[in-house]
Amino acid sequence: MRHSSAMKSPASVWATPGLGVALCLLGLIQLSLVWGGEPEQSSAPRGGAEPVGALLERMSEALRSLNYEGTLVYLHENRLETLNLLHRVEQGRVQERLVALSGPVRAVARERDRVMCVLPDGHPILVERGGGRQILGTEGIDPSVLGEHYRVEMLGVARIAGRDSDVVGIIPRDRLRYGYRFYLDQETALPLKSDLIDLNEEPLEQLMFTSIRFQPSDGVVPDVPDGVGRPVRSAPVTESSSRWRFEKPPVGFRLVMHQERQQPDGSVLEHFLFTDRLSAYSIYVEDGEQDGLNGVTNIGAVHAAGRKVDGHQMTAIGEVPAATVEAAVAGARLAPDPSSD
Questions:
Q1: What is the CATH number of domain 31-215?
Q2: 3-state class of 117 per DSSP?
Q3: What DSSP letter does each residue of 66-114 carry, written as one string?
């Protein structure tokens, strides 16, 4: 991820009041989706209902190919915000714009691998990220690989924004991860509402269309080069050459990416990404001379945990419970340098 000079390191961002910057730069603007009709429970699928896997696959395709614009409401920490979302696919290029209609002026725009954020103080930040994740980031969900840590099931039907929807639940089996309820438009499979839920299926954050307009598509499927924009959830497990070791990571989470990035001061920032194929967290390791997060903090459902290890600042961040990021940094250690033997 490349960024403007306004970006702070993960440690300093989470140690200062500028947390809006962190949300923008970490790509957490997808919002994990507001209240509104609970699903009507049904003991059997409606006539002709699709299997859950096929329905989720249609959802991913809808998010890639449909043109639409709508008004959403976002509920988090007892705060309600109104947003406008525009999504277009023109000649295979995805363009998105999310604008806050209530509260301070905020906006996020995405095109291919660039994300532009305008913060409440009017300061713009350009973030370049390979493949640029969609604002409604649900890509790469494969129910066939989630069974060990989640229950995936149909929960009934509901009516959202005046449209009939099927309700799919991805429910966590333990307290180390969150799950989702997706309300998928029966005609297009677009998620009209989404709840981020805990082990007890209680919503932590909710996003819902109150109105939506579909627009004609040119039929050109977005062109994503091989190796670019691969969903984190389907990335292969990997090993790194780093000296950092993470013993006893949270159950089910595996390393899928390791990157090193040169900082303006010449130091190296290491980034490790772990996923259980639905949820994910990042661990950032940087020189520990500066003040950094010590302990646990959160912005809504996004938790961060930090501590000093062998003269380095260790910070774990993710849309996961506090226990998960705590466990992520607790087992970190620096292996001896072989060249020093």
A1: 2.50.20.10
A2: strand
A3: -EEEEEEEEEETTEEEEEEEEEEEETTEEEEEEEESSSS--EEEEETTE
| Rounded Cα gap, residues 26 and 254, in angstroms | 19
User: With the C-alpha atoms ordered 22, 27, 29, 33, is the resulting torsion angle positive or negative?
Assistant: negative
- State whether residue 235 is helix, strand or coil: coil
- Residue 209, pLDDT > 90, answer yes
**Regarding the domain with residue range 232-340, which homologous superfamily does it belong to in the CATH classification?**
MucB/RseB, C-terminal domain (3.30.200.100)
Residue 100: band (very low, low, confident or very high) from pLDDT cuts 50, 70, 90: confident
CA distance 325 to 246: 12
Q: What residues contact 166, with CB distance under 8 A and at least 6 apart?
A: 46, 49, 50, 55, 154, 157, 183, 184, 186
Q: Letter for the amino acid at 31?
A: L
pLDDT one-digit tens code per residue, 132-188: 445 555 677 888 899 999 999 999 999 999 999 999 999 999 999 999 999 999 999
Q: What is the band of 123 on the pLDDT scale with cuts at 50, 70, 90?
A: low
Q: State residue 299's pLDDT score.
A: 86
